[in-house]
Design a protein that fits this description.
Helix content: over 70%
Number of domains: 2
Largest sheet: none
Distance between the termini: 72 Å
Shape: elongated
Strand content: under 5%
Structural class: mainly alpha
Radius of gyration: 25 Å
């Protein structure tokens, strides 16, 4: 009786181990597929960024403005000319809020890659690009008050 019980236990253990191995293999395969997809997306974004930087002066000026601000330790926000450059770059992508947000993300990613920004610089760049996209600089310029941090 104990031997039968032990055999049954061994069969169940083998079955569960087999299922676990199958799931681990599927997980590993899916992880590799997703990493490959992310790699391709990064390559495409990098290529588009490179092309825009080489061919479009407006986009290049906006990217350089983001990099300069992010690296500037004592400069907390964009000046009016930089805001104008960034808005012009956003308008290249369209004129609605969703397109501006996507363009802002693209601008931020390009500046992060081109400028090799560290974590602190990335946070500052992200925050200020979002402020431009969300119109906080417009409000600040109209009211003469500082923008949110």
């Amino acid at each position: 009786m104990q031997s039968d019980h032990h055999r049954e236990l061994m069969k169940l253990e083998a079955k569960y181990q087999s299922e676990l191995n199958r799931k681990e293999a599927a997980h590993t395969e899916e992880t590799a597929r997703l990493k490959n997809r992310i790699s391709w997306q990064n390559l495409i974004i990098g290529s588009l960024s490179f092309l825009l930087l080489k061919t479009n002066d407006i986009f290049r000026k906006a990217v350089n403005s983001v990099i300069r601000l992010a690296r500037g330790y004592y400069k907390p926000r964009f000046d009016a000319e930089q805001v104008s450059d960034i808005k012009s770059a956003l308008n290249l992508f369209g004129d609605d809020k969703q397109l501006h947000q996507a363009a802002g993300d693209f601008l931020y990613i390009t500046a992060t890659q081109k400028g090799k920004l560290d974590n602190r610089e990335q946070i500052k760049a992200r925050r200020e690009v979002d402020n431009v996209v969300e119109g906080h600089y417009d409000q600040q310029q109209k009211k003469g008050v500082s923008i949110r941090r």
